Amino acid sequence: MILLALLSMMQAAATPADQGADNTVVVTARPKPFAQTPATMVVEPVAMMIATLDSDGDGKTTRAEMEAGVKRSYDAIDITHQGSIGYLQFADWAERWLGDRNALPSPFDVDRDSDNRITLAELQAHFSRLFSRFDRDHDGAISRAEALTIRTIPADANGPTGPLAPRDRK
Q1: What element of type H or E holds 148?
Q2: Fewest CB within 10 A of the end CB: N or C in the chain?
Q3: What are the tens digits of pLDDT across the range 62-82?
Q4: What is this structure's pTM?
Q5: Three-state SS for 14?
Q6: What DSSP state is assigned to residue 160?
Q7: Cis preceding-peptide flag for 105 (omega within 30 of 0)
Q8: Which phi and psi (to 5°) does residue 162 adopt?
Q9: What are the pLDDT digits (tens) for 94-116?
Q10: Cβ contacts of residue 95 below 8 Å, gap of 6+?
């Protein structure tokens, strides 16, 4: 009895679009995924972070916006206000702000005095060098276009693809 009531409620709830010509319910499967076109434009995690530090929403990150954002990100990890963080805390910082604990920059690149501690000044200095690299038109701001890296050879998860890819790729 309960089963009949449930079946009649289900049939009544079905809309005409869900039913075939003979009032049978039509169930469709998910469409099959298609292969993604290999990316020719990528963004380094650090460039993506710099782009997110655009505080006025004009689509460009100035050096001042970047410095303020890097300080906020550093302060969020240096919660005890020691003035320096160790390499494990740096990995926490990288995971939170760059998306992965192993994303570049490496703590070894940032720790200029090799004391196994990273200060805000060291992180700011490293980001200053990165800013100079990304600011290709030297206008004092990094646009979204400047944050992109253009690949001349498309690549997927297995490496280069297309006509210039290595011939022995399987």
Answers
A1: strand 148-156
A2: C
A3: 999 999 999 999 999 999 999
A4: 0.68
A5: coil
A6: E
A7: yes
A8: 90, -170
A9: 999 999 999 999 999 999 999 99
A10: 101
